[in-house]
Each structure stands twice: as structure tokens, then as C-alpha cells.
Amino acid sequence: MSTTSHLPPKLLLAGLLSALFLPAVAQQAAAPAPIADAQVQSVVVTGTYAKNRRSIDSESPVDIIGARELQGTGSTELATVLGRLLPSLNFPRPSGADASDAVRPAQLRGLSPDQTLVLVNGKRRHTSAVVNVNGTQGRGSAPVDLNAIPLSAIDHIEVLRDGAAAQYGSDAIAGVINIILKRGAEGGSAEVGVGEYQKRDGKQRSLSGSTGFALGQDGWARVAIDLAERDPTNRAGADLRNPAEPRFGQVNQRYGDPLTRPRSVLLNAQYRVNENIDWYAFVNYAERDTSAAATWRTAYNGASLRSPTIFPQGFLPLENSRSTDQSVVTGLRGEAAGWRWDASLNYGSNEFKLDLDNTINQDLGAASPTHFYAGKLSNVQTVANLDIAREFKLDALHGPLTVAIGAEERQERYVIGAGDANSYYLGGSQGFSGFRPVNAGSHSRHNESLYLNLEAQLTEKLSGAVAARHERYSDFGNTTSAKASARYAFNDAIAVRATGSSGFRAPSLAQQFYTITTTNFSVINGVNTPIETGTFAVGSPAAAALGAVPLKAEKARNLSLGLQLQPTRNLTASVDVYRIDIDNRILFSSNLVLSDALKQTLAAQGALVGAARYFTNAIDTRTSGIDLLGTYRVDLANKDRLDFTLGYNHNKTDVQRIAANPDLLTANKLLLVDRQTINRSTVGSPRDKFSLASDYATGAWGGHAVVTRYGSFTVPQNNATLDQVYAPQWVLDLSASYKLSPNWKLTAGLDNATNRYPDQVTSAGNLNNNGINPYSGFAPNGFNGRYYYAKANYAW
């Protein structure tokens, strides 16, 4: 049932925090920059309200990644870059997964993509409207689309690797990614880039720039624009299934990266209203057109031709989508009576429209069109908040006590729009059946939160912080989160830190209301068989008839313990161990292939399907891991330098409890969450990830090399004998740059210089589709091979 808020957005009180942040080590972990005193003393803003909080004094691990590092790879996609720079982040490249080809999910610490909170300048970012419903990593999630944010607009990124729901609310279970935008009127740059894969496909062209200008004497504005064209890649094998096919033995499938045309612009501005008040705003607009291939439709469907008059040789349906992201954040901040305050309004939306081309609706016969509008998804978020903070001097404390309080109201709306009638008539358009009028609808909710944060330097060596947050959701009730953290410095070279927290993630509106009927392929008796599959809202009569109950919030408990070392000015290191317990994890159910009796039950409700699925609180899990980070700088003659950066993450997720199977499903010999569904969440991402980077600078020349080892992962099946364990993959990235002048710099590089590919999918159980799909979409570095690129940058 839809819940609509009648309350206007309120500016409430608010205060976030917990002293979490970066050791000098973590700052360098993802960014192989020189280890200078200024960097060791970097001020962090994520998760703290204390003034001038130094990174070296932080109590939780934060990776700080600068603009130079973000733009130092061959990729212009933010999520791809983060996947290469951060040992704890995984960003696979699925193919043939419908909308997940266009909006790919990223994972932090092997957890679900929607268990990581994304902020921009400290403000909550809206999530994508796309739900990952196919057999990819992150199945069932609707996370933030990181690639909608232009790289050229980013000054640096702070990645908090710790639970932070007590500070930021829902989603901050695995951690927080805070994207800090460039500021000020001075300086700018423009860059043009080209690239191509070893197989002579996937050509990329990019153009980006950023510049600032003054707003009178008291303000500034910066604008950044990123444009790119990325051609598709194809690593499909020849189609050898049926010698009678007109295109037998040819490569008919397209299996790899889709064709994409992203474009984004971001404006960031600030103006001094008076001595005590500043106005600020940042606006982001992004469009991305994507053309992804569905599964090749053979000429013959059994013994008869599928479409003798339109596509007599078979056809490849193309899913052509446009994802539109919009966000506006504006606010006032200042100081009054010793209190710092920040009041803001935050609007963000994502709309995903899908068209099908080069396909037919078989049930329309020769009259079928070849273009279909399949419908749209939309997600909208509006946030109002007020944060206030102040330092108090107390004789009992070594330093001031920072008190931050605040409140927030958030409104959310999720909309499904129907496609044209031909797209869903009977079997629907091949490749993706459109959203039907019965699927369409608008659903909304609101929540209010109050939060308190305290932090202080308790003694000369001991600092600590506590945070608490209470939230009330209109659709599932109340929840309270808390956090405590501390850091003890034995001396300048050795310190320990620890945190403990509780957290939560509210079930998204997409997880509660996403509904569609599509043709999916399931392996039945060893044969990849098409089957009409209904995805039902968890509160719908159809889902209730299959044992569904209302979703509950996920509950988390985070513990971490860390050691920081800085024995010399040029050497830093940190080791952090962590454990994350999550109860009531929300998963997309298995594909429930229905018995005749259940088909009739659903048919009586107008749902003519052979299989069904819905979201459910399926399992409790425990994720344990370790992060190891270190940097070392070698001072060379003539001001040359050589920097080394090492990063390692190991994590393991175990199932602690599986929810009871509904009696109705048990009676029909069905499992709501089957072995594959469960194991995809525990073993589908790499168990570990290691990287060693080096940067060398001499005069106008610069060189960069990084070797990354992506650990083993498993693609599970319901039949354990068909599980495939993929061997670790070593990848070497190289680049060199030359400064032609103080303004001009040229860069050339090789990503995956040794042209390494992941293991191929075995033929057991025909999981490689008769060799047509030779690689797994779970592969953390994709399966495109060596990539050549060159860039020219002009800075002023």
C-alpha cells in the first residue's frame, strides 16, 4: 500500500558526528602522493563537526583520494576509478543484465551496494531508480549512480570505512563515500582523451573541463563539464548451437561493455551574505544514453521460424536507455552566539527510460513493430536539515568539547511508468517486456530524525566521540542508532583506535514496490529455458499468496580496531580489523518456478506467470575483514621522488541465520531464498584485493605503475557441483606523463598492460551458453583486455 506524506519539509535541528577519520596512512592508501607534512595534517570533514579536525588525529579509517589520483587512470567513470584505487571497493562490469548494464553497482567491503552511503559536500545523494534484478553482484539493490558525477568537478573524496548510521542515518552500514567539490574562482583545466582496447573495439573519446569565476567581490562559482563517447566491446563466442541457423558459426551475440554516451555538468557556488552568513549551492545535471544488447534471438524457435518476414536470420534486441540525474542543494551557514550552523534543502532525482529496438513482439506476428517504449522508473528525494555545533572549554578535558545537534526530514517518492501497449502485449517485446499499467504507480514516504554528537580530546593522548540518532519512518516505524569511538596515541609514532556502533538500512521504496513481468531464462533440466517471471511488490496480493510479509529494516552492529604507525616522516602504515553483523538482510528472492496450483492462484489475480519473485528479509550475516595500508617515500637527488603505496583488503562473509521458508512454498517444494541467492551474497565478490603502486617524478617527466591482484571469487549455482571458483587475477597498469610547459601536460598509458583475462566460464551445465558468453559478469576487472589511452591537459 502506498504511503503519502502530507507533512511539508521541515528545517529541524541536526548534528552529526563521531570523530572518524583518517590516519595519515589511510590518506595515502589510495593516493600515491608525496608524504608531506601538510598532507599528514590534512583536515577532514566526513563524520565530524570539530573545527580543523586533523587527519592524523582521527579515530576511524578514511581514504582521501585527490583529483590528481582520480584523473590518473585511463577511465573517466568515477566508480571504475574508485574500484582501481580502493582495495576495499569492488566494481564489476556485468553484461547481458538489462538495466544493470547501464547502471552498474559498486560494493564496499563485499557488502550490498545500497549499504554504502554517498554524500556530496556532506549532503546525502539520491539513489538510482534502477533495481538490479538479474543475476549480478548487488542483485536486489538500487544504489547511487556514482558515474553521474563529473570527475572534473571533484577536488577530493573521503571514504570512511566504518559504520556511520548514527551520524548519517540509513545506508551507512559498510561506510560512507563523501565527494568534495572544487571551490573558488581561481584556476581551471581542460582535458581531451582518446582510448581503445587491444581487440580494436571499445573506442573512447572524452572531453572535460573545470573553471571558476568571481561573483562580485564576495562570492565565486565553479562549473565543470564532462562529455564522453564509449563504443561497445564484444567478447562473445561463435554461435554453434544449431547448424540449421542461417548465421550458424558466426558471432551473433554482443557480450561486453555497452555503447554509452554520458554527459554531465556541475555548478558549485558560494556567496558571502554578510560577515556571519554564507549562501552556498551546487547543482548537478547528467544524462547517459546506453545501448546494451539482450540475448540473441535465433531464426528458429523450435521447428518454426521466429520472424520470417521481419528478421528471417534472427535478431539481437537492443535495450536503449536514458538515465537522467538531477540534483540541487542550497543552504545558508554561519555563526551566531558561538554556534556554527548550517541549514540546507536538498533535491535529487533519477529517471530511467527504456526503449527496445531491433526486436519484435512475437505475438503480434508480421504486424509487430521493431521499436517499443518499455516505460520508465523514477526516484525522487527531498531533504531538509539544520546542523548546529559549538566548542565548550571544560577544565576536566585536555581540549574543547564539540557538541553538535541537529535534525532532518526526508521525503522520498518512487514511480513506475507503463510502456506502450505493444511492449507488454501477451509475451511482450523480445529482450525486455515493458512495464504494464498494473505495474505502474507512485509510492512515497517520509522520515524525521534527531541526532546528537559529542567529541573531545579527553587527555593529551586520548580522544573520543559518541553519537546517537533516532529516526521515525512513516512506513516501518522507529529506529535508534549509536556509536562510540576512541583513539590513544602512545607517542608520535604509534596509536591505536577503536569504534563500536549500531546501524540500520531502511528498505528502499524500490525494494517495496518494484514490479514487472518479464521473460527470464532459467536452467531447467540442463536447458536455458525462457519463462514468464513476475516480480511482485512485497505488499501485493500476488506476493502475499506466495508467503510474503512486510519488509523490516536491516540492523547492523560494527566493531573495528586499528593500529597506526609512523616510525619516520617518510613511512606510514595502518592496520584495521573489523566485524559487521547484519540482521534481516534484504535479498531478492530466488526465481520461484510455480506449480500448476500456484499458477492458477496467481492467474485468478490477473498474474499470468510461470515464475515469481519478491523482496524478503532473508538472512543474517557476519562480515569479518582486515585493511592494511602503507606508504613509503624515497627522497632522491635533484628533488626527484619515488613513492610507494600498498593496499590490501581481506573480507569474509558468513551466514548466521536463514529466515524460515513460508509454509506455502515448502508445501510446493519451493525455497524463497535458494542456495544461489544466499551464496551470491557471501562468495560472489573477491575474498581479497592487493595493490602496490609506485610513482616516480623527475623534472618534467612522471611515471606511474600499479599492480593489482583481484582475489578469488565464486559464482554459485543451486547445484553445488556447478559452482565455479575463479582464480585470482593479476593486472598491471602503466602510464607516463610529460609537462610541455607550466600549462600543458601529455599522458599516455596502458590499463591491463599484460592483457590478462579472467578465467573462462566452464561448459558444465551450459552456464557459458554454449560458449557464446565465455566470461563471468562477476569478474572484478571486467573482461575487455588491454586498453591504450592518451590525454592532453591544459591547466591555468
Would you give an account of this structure?
- The protein is 8% helix and 48% strand.
- The termini are far apart.
- With 796 residues, the protein is mainly beta.
- The strands form 6 sheets. It has a 22-stranded antiparallel β-barrel. A 5-stranded mixed sheet has the order 2-7-8-5-6. The chain has a 4-stranded mixed sheet with strand order 24-25-29-28, with no helix packed on it.
- The chain has one domain (13-250, 259-795): TonB-dependent receptor, beta-barrel domain (Maltoporin, Chain A, Beta Barrel), CATH 2.40.170.20.
CATH superfamily: TonB-dependent receptor, beta-barrel domain
First-residue to last-residue Cα separation: 56 Å
In the CATH hierarchy, the third-tier topology is known as: Maltoporin, Chain A
Low-confidence stretches: 1-41
CATH architecture: Beta Barrel
Q: Give a short account of the largest sheet.
A: 22 strands, antiparallel, barrel
List keywords for this structure.
796 residues, 8% helix, five-stranded mixed beta sheet, 11 helices, mainly beta
Write the layout of secondary structure elements.
Layout: E1 13-14, H1 24-29, H2 37-40, E2 62-66, H3 67-70, H4 78-85, E3 89-90, E4 107-108, E5 116-120, E6 123-124, E7 154-160, H5 165-168, E8 175-181, E9 188-197, E10 204-215, E11 219-230, E12 259-274, E13 277-293, E14 300-301, E15 304-305, E16 318-336, E17 339-357, E18 371-392, E19 401-418, H6 421-424, E20 441-457, E21 462-473, E22 477-489, E23 494-505, H7 509-513, E24 516-524, E25 527-535, H8 541-544, E26 554-568, E27 571-588, E28 592-593, H9 596-603, E29 611-613, E30 615-635, E31 641-658, H10 663-667, H11 675-683, E32 688-698, E33 701-710, E34 713-715, E35 724-726, E36 729-739, E37 744-751, E38 787-795
Parallel strand pairs: 5-8, 25-29
Antiparallel strand pairs: 1-19, 2-7, 3-4, 5-6, 7-8, 9-10, 9-38, 10-11, 11-12, 12-13, 13-16, 14-15, 16-17, 17-18, 18-19, 19-20, 20-21, 21-22, 22-23, 23-26, 24-25, 26-27, 27-30, 28-29, 30-31, 31-32, 32-33, 33-36, 34-35, 36-37, 37-38
